[in-house]
Amino acid sequence: MVGPPPRLAEQLLRRLLPSGPKGRAILGDLHEDFARKARRDGEPAARVWYWRQAAGLCATRLVGGWRTGRGNGRGDNPDKEGMMEGFVRDLAQALRSGLRTPGATAMVVAVLGVGIGSSTAVFSALQSVLFPGYPFAEPDRLVLIGEAGDGDLGRMTVPDLQALRQEGGGLAQVAAYRPGNFNLTGLPVPERLDGMYATGDWFDVLGVRPILGSGIERRSAAPSGGGGIVLSHGLWTRLSGADPGMLGTTLTLDGVSLTVVGVLPESFWFPDRIDVVMPAELDPSFTEPSSTRRIYRALGRLAQGVTPATAGRGLQGILDDARPGEAPEVAVVRLHEAVTGNSDRVLILLQAAAAILLALGLTNAAGIILARSVGRGPEMQVRVALGASRGRLARGALAEGVVLGMLGGAAGLGLSYALLALLPAAASLGLGGPGEMEIGMGVLGFCLTSSVATGAVVSVVPAVLATRAAGRARRAEARWATPSGWDRQLQHVLLAGQVALSLVLAVGAASVTRSLLDVLSHDPGFRSEGVITMRLSLSGDRYGSSEAIAAFYHRLSDEVEGLEGVRRAGVTLALPFSGTDIGLPVEVSDQAGGHTPVEASFRTVAGGYFEALEIPLVEGRYAFSHPLESNAREAVVSEALARRLRRSPVGLTARLDPDSPDGFEIVGVVGDVRHADLTEPPEPVIYLGYEAYPMNWGYLVARTDRDPMELVPGIRRTVAALDAEQPVYGVAPLNGRVADSTSRQRWVTLLAGLFALSALLIMASGIYGVVSAHVARLTRDLGVRAALGAPTSALVVRVARGVGLAVVAGVAVGCLAAGWTMDLAAAFLYEAPSPDAESFIFAAAAVAATALAAALGPSWRATRIDPVRVLAAE
Amino acid sequence: MAKLGEFELLVLLALLRQSDEPYANRVREAIEERTGRSVARGALYRTLDRLEEKGLLEWEMEPSATPARGGHPMRRLLVTEEGIGAARQATLVFRSFLDGLDPILNT
Question: pTM, whole model, 2 decimals?
Answer without folding.
Answer: 0.58
